[in-house]
Design brief:
By secondary structure, the protein is α+β, with helices and mostly antiparallel strands. It is 45% helix and 9% strand. Helix 3 runs antiparallel to helix 4. The longest helix is centred in the middle third of the chain and has 30 residues.
Length: 246
């Protein structure tokens, strides 16, 4: 999908921010390039439907979420499968129509490279987290987040770690090596902070771990504003599509 980009949405005025929001709205300067990327495909909503692939935007948003969130999010199997099929169709089109050295050929190559980058960056962000927390994501409660290929990779990493640790038994290891042995299974930090942008107005949102009668932890969000908050509090909003990580 090629064409002009939209200008970024202006940051709302201060008086539009709900006064009871405990998360602080912040203008990070990141919205310009991000919104241009996220709104690019919307430029062509009224154009040739055969040319527009809605999963291009879905993959870009999934990539941003995966890069910003400390935990592994559910694998976007349908989006990845659709885009890989789309890329194979484009390769056939370039080959069969002999579009070499002209504008259609160059445009298709640029589009294919853009999509490949999004998919590759999405996979890279996931593999980075799987590599670090392989034992955690191989557990029965977490393996549903992984694709079959990712589960195979995580299992291999876990087995390699077990083999390495087998040579460092506590009874045999030198004192300065014992610190390398993990005391417990490492898991992603749920209390790390991230920036989120509200995609709609949200009033009196209660984070998952707060008590029912605790009114001091109710959060409100104004559409278009950016907030800094704990991932554990933002997770449900991110997964439901009410806010997006930026």
């Amino acid at each position: 999908v090629l064409g002009p980009r939209k200008s970024a949405m202006a940051t709302p005025d201060a008086d539009t921010v709900p006064p009871d929001a405990t998360s602080i709205p912040i203008d990070t300067g990141k919205t310009d390039s991000l919104e241009k990327d996220l709104d690019l495909d919307a430029e062509f909503a009224d154009g040739d439907e055969d040319f527009v692939n809605e999963h291009v935007g879905d993959m870009r948003r999934a990539r941003v979420r995966e890069e910003e969130c400390p935990e592994l999010l559910p694998y976007e199997a349908d989006v990845v499968k659709d885009l890989m099929f789309y890329l194979s169709e484009q390769v056939l089109r370039v080959t069969e129509e002999h579009l070499y050295g002209d504008f259609p050929h160059d445009a298709l190559l640029l589009e294919m490279r853009r999509i490949r980058y999004s998919v590759s960056a999405y996979w890279t962000a996931r593999i980075r987290k799987i590599s670090r927390y392989a034992v955690f994501y191989c557990s029965d409660s977490q393996r549903h987040l992984l694709s079959p290929q990712e589960l195979e990779f995580a299992t291999g990493v876990m087995e390699a770690q077990k083999t390495a640790l087998g040579h460092l038994q506590i009874g045999q290891a030198q004192p300065h090596l014992r610190a390398l042995l993990p005391a417990k299974m490492e898991r992603p930090p749920p209390d790390s902070h991230l920036f989120v942008k509200a995609l709609q107005d949200i009033n009196d949102y209660r984070p998952k771990d707060t008590q029912a009668g605790d009114e001091s932890h109710l959060l409100s969000f104004a559409v278009g504003c950016i907030y800094l908050m704990k991932y554990s509090e933002a997770k449900e909003l991110i997964l439901s599509g009410q806010v997006m990580a930026v």
